[in-house]
Amino acid sequence: MEIKQLSDFVAVCRAGSFAAASRRINTSQPGLGYQIKQLEAELDVILLHRHSRGVSLTEAGTAFLQKAEKILDAVTEARATMVPFRVGRRIVIRVGLSPTPARLVGRAIAALSATLPNVEFTLREGYSEDLIDLAMRGDLDMAITLSHDSRPGFRQRPLYREKLCLIGKPGAQDLPIGPISLHKLADIPIVAGPRGHVVRERLIAATKAAGVALNIVQELDPSGLRRSLVVYGDQRTVAAPGVFIDEYERDLLSVWPIEPAITLEVSLLAAATVPTDLEEAISLAVTEAMAPFGGLMDPV
């Protein structure tokens, strides 16, 4: 039995299907299936029911999942105990960033990296749940996401809150000066992110509670394409301002905070192997980076 088999099994259980798990952990679906079959053959039990909707745990699978998670937690703790012995060695910290905090936090980590010659940061971007799965597999040391749920074997630290805003070109004659109400927002055509994404779902919930419906003219999954339509076209979108921080600073875009406020909380999930002083240094660097944007971004 191998650690990879256990982590693959846990990933499939959390994702609910082989297809979803393969996307989240960036591995092939046949490879995942092979690992699980090998595990079932070694244990001589069926762990998962396969069906058209995905997978579900058998009774044996439910019992084994609890043990597998404990083993993976123990492996994480064992790795953590080795950190103090890495005297004089360069530490590599693999950080996952969800799209909302990626630009602000990426900027903060780049500034911090210049002051820490013995630490190398590698960054990758992805959606929150995908990054958390990668962290749980041991493929990331930190995940900075919109999820604030704790995970076994990891430390969770809130970093900051950010207000959702309408984003568009400056000088709009049809928009108010200052915050925009949900009722006014409903009259404005916008391009939106994909269904199921945290920002989209938070926005839908707020407008539904207010008794209004959004005027979504286009739904786009690739964030780069949505950025191009907003920055270089005449489209508008709703997002956390940190997503467009570079364009906002260069006066290419304006932001209209939504009232009543809809906030997102950005959190840091750190493996036990990450030194706590490094985690604290990242938190302080992020606080410094968001200082110019007070009112739109605030420390938790």
UniProtKB/TrEMBL annotation:
Protein name: LysR family nitrogen assimilation transcriptional regulator
PANTHER family: LYSR FAMILY TRANSCRIPTIONAL REGULATOR, TRANSCRIPTIONAL DUAL REGULATOR HCAR-RELATED
Organism: Novosphingobium sediminicola
Annotated HTH lysR-type domain residues: 1-58
Family note: Belongs to the LysR transcriptional regulatory family.
GO annotation, cellular component aspect: protein-DNA complex
Keywords: DNA-binding, Transcription, Transcription regulation
GO molecular function: DNA binding; DNA-binding transcription factor activity
Alphabetized Pfam families for the sequence: HTH_1, LysR_substrate
